[in-house]
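User: Just a sanity check before I run the rest of the batch. Below are the structure tokens for the first item. I only need the designed sequence back.
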């Protein structure tokens, strides 16, 4: 009986250590692409509440792709709309695989997750709800193999 209690406590401690909260994360969300078929006309809209306009932040893009995705990269059109309506548009390329074909993302089985820095040390000048709108910029009308797209906003480390 005592051995079982010790084992339970040990595994509880291990789980608690590995699932500790991420102190740098301000916001993180994913949008699932139905059937991993992303239509060019499909916009992924993330509503991001911002309250801290002083802390520098990093904006990262997360991609979950299937290993059957047919390309080594992914072009994105990204638009950030401030609470007052001012918008900034950008084109961004994410490399998902090495020239050898080895996937750069993490994960087991048929889905890989890749996180890349999109903007480092940005200041969001207004508090309120920002919109981050993402659209794929590949040539195909329907892009197969992209399972999820996500964004992450985290506190920038000093000296970053």
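Assistant: Here's the designed sequence for the first item:
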């Amino acid at each position: 009986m005592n051995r079982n209690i010790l084992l339970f406590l040990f595994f509880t401690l291990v789980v608690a250590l590995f699932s500790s909260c991420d102190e740098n994360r301000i916001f993180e969300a994913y949008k699932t692409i139905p059937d991993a078929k992303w239509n060019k006309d499909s916009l992924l809209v993330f509503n991001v509440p911002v309250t801290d306009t002083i802390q520098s932040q990093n904006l990262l893009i997360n991609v979950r792709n299937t290993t059957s995705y047919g390309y080594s990269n992914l072009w994105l059109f990204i638009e950030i709309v401030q609470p007052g309506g001012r918008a900034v548009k950008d084109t961004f390329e994410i490399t998902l695989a090495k020239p050898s074909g080895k996937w750069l993302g993490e994960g087991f089985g048929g889905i890989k997750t890749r996180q890349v820095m999109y903007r480092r040390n940005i200041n969001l000048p207004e508090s309120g709800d920002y919109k981050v709108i993402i659209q794929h910029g590949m040539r195909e009308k329907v892009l197969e193999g992209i399972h999820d797209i996500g964004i992450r906003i985290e506190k920038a480390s000093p000296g970053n």
